[in-house]
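To make this tangible, we now present a fold written out as tokens:
***
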Amino acid sequence: MNLQGIVAVSGKPGLWRALAQNKTGYVLESLDAQKTKLIANLSTAKLAALNEITIFGLEDDIKLTDVFERMKAADSIPTGKEDGKKLREFFYTVAADHDEEKVYASDMKKIITWFNLLKELPLFNEEAPSAPIATEQEILAPEPVKEEVAAPGAEAPKAKSKKAPAKKA
């Protein structure tokens, strides 16, 4: 699932794709059929990237992408208009260790609405791009120090010396 560039904007319904960035914010396009364009000012709008959103869990937070993967495999997905009890029952199947006190029915409705909007898009079935991962040896190994070595028969490189400034008497 490739959710790179997909954001939720506070105060705006639905999901948005980041198209470009300018001095003041981002140019966004809605993922619905209207393909509405929006310029989100960074000083006033709050953007949340879907691939970075987590859900409160009892032990650890649960990544939204993991919940979406489980929702793909689910038999039936309730609509966002169901009552809170049915949504909570469904959420126990896709995010069993979510924190009941911190995850509200409105959060579950939003996640289900987002899933229903995303499942039709081709990016939903794409593999997420992965950055090259450095191995532990590359991280821990210091970079070799390069020394100047004079060729045989050549003069050795002169070391630069700093002279102390002359004292005025």
Observations:
- The two ends are 76 Å apart (CA to CA).
- Residues 53-127 form a domain with the Arc Repressor Mutant, subunit A fold (CATH 1.10.10.1650).
- The helical segments are 64-73, 84-94, 105-118, 136-140.
